[in-house]
Design brief:
9 helices; single chain; 235 residues; disordered N terminus; elongated; MetI-like fold; mainly alpha; 65% helix
Length: 235
C-alpha cells in the first residue's frame, strides 16, 4: 500500500489550482495575528503622523526665541513649556522628529538595499566576484564608522540629503556579510536546484526563491543594530 503526500505551497508561490499566495498578504496576516507587532506598527505610524502632520496643526516656530519666557512651564501658548533660550519645546520636538525619522528610514533603506544586493550576488555567484566584493567589504569594515562618515561628508559637503546618503553608504557592510552567508546556505538546497532544472534564470532564483528565505534575519539584524545610525556612531 503506497501513500502519497502533498506539499504545502510556500508564501509567494503558485499552487496547483493557479492561485497565487502573495508574500505581502502572508506578512499582513501574520502581523495581524501577532498583537505586539500590530501595536508596534500603530505606534510607528502615530510617530510619523505626529512628526509630519503635527507642525501643520501646532503652528509655532521651533527657532523663535522669547527671552521673556525662558524655561517657562507648560501653558496655552507653549504646551510643553520653553527651553533655556525661550524656544517652544513641543515645536522643536516635532521638527527634530521629522529629521530623525527621515534620516533613520531612508538611510536604513539605502544600507539594506546595497547590503542585500552585494551579499546576494557575492554568495550566489561566488568565485572572483565573491572575492572582490568581500575584500572591499572587509576594507570598509576595518575603518571606524564615525571617521568613514566624516570622510564622506568632507568630500561631498554637509547637507541633510548628503548626510542620509553618506550614512546609508557607510553602514551596509554587516548586512552584506549576513546575506552572503544566507545565500551560501540556500543556494545548494533542493528547491533552488529544482528551480534551475525548470529553467529559472539566475535573477529569478536570487530574487524569487532565495531572497525571501534570507530576508527575515536581515530585517532583525538591521533593526537591532541601528540605534545610533542617525548620528553615524556605529554601523
Amino acid at each position: 500500500m503506497t501513500t502519497t503526500t502533498t506539499a504545502t505551497p510556500l508564501a509567494g508561490t503558485r499552487t496547483a489550482t493557479g492561485t497565487h499566495r502573495s508574500m505581502g498578504r502572508y506578512f499582513l496576516r501574520r502581523m495581524v495575528q501577532y498583537r505586539p507587532g500590530l501595536i508596534s506598527f500603530f505606534v510607528i505610524v502615530l510617530l510619523y503622523l505626529l512628526a509630519f502632520v503635527g507642525p501643520h496643526i501646532y503652528r509655532v516656530s521651533p527657532n523663535e526665541i522669547d527671552l521673556l519666557n525662558i524655561l517657562g512651564p507648560p501653558n496655552r501658548d507653549h504646551l510643553l513649556g520653553t527651553d533655556d533660550n525661550g524656544r517652544d519645546i513641543l515645536a522643536r520636538l516635532l521638527n527634530g522628529g521629522q529629521v530623525s525619522l527621515i534620516v533613520g528610514l531612508v538611510a536604513v533603506l539605502i544600507a539594506d538595499t546595497v547590503g542585500v544586493l552585494t551579499g546576494a550576488f557575492s554568495g550566489y555567484f561566488g568565485k572572483a566576484l565573491d572575492s572582490v566584493l568581500m575584500r572591499f567589504t572587509d576594507a570598509l569594515l576595518a575603518i571606524p564608522g564615525f571617521f568613514l562618515l566624516l570622510t564622506v561628508l568632507s568630500l561631498f559637503g554637509p547637507s541633510l540629503t548628503k548626510l542620509i546618503v553618506a550614512i546609508g553608504l557607510t553602514s551596509w557592510m554587516a548586512i552584506s556579510r549576513l546575506v552572503r552567508g544566507e545565500f551560501l546556505r540556500y543556494k545548494e538546497t533542493d528547491f533552488v536546484q529544482a528551480a534551475k532544472a525548470m529553467g529559472a534564470s539566475d535573477m529569478r532564483v536570487i530574487f524569487r526563491h532565495i531572497l525571501p528565505q534570507a530576508v527575515s534575519p536581515v530585517i532583525v539584524a538591521s533593526r537591532f543594530r541601528r540605534r545610533y545610525t542617525s548620528i553615524g556612531l556605529v554601523r
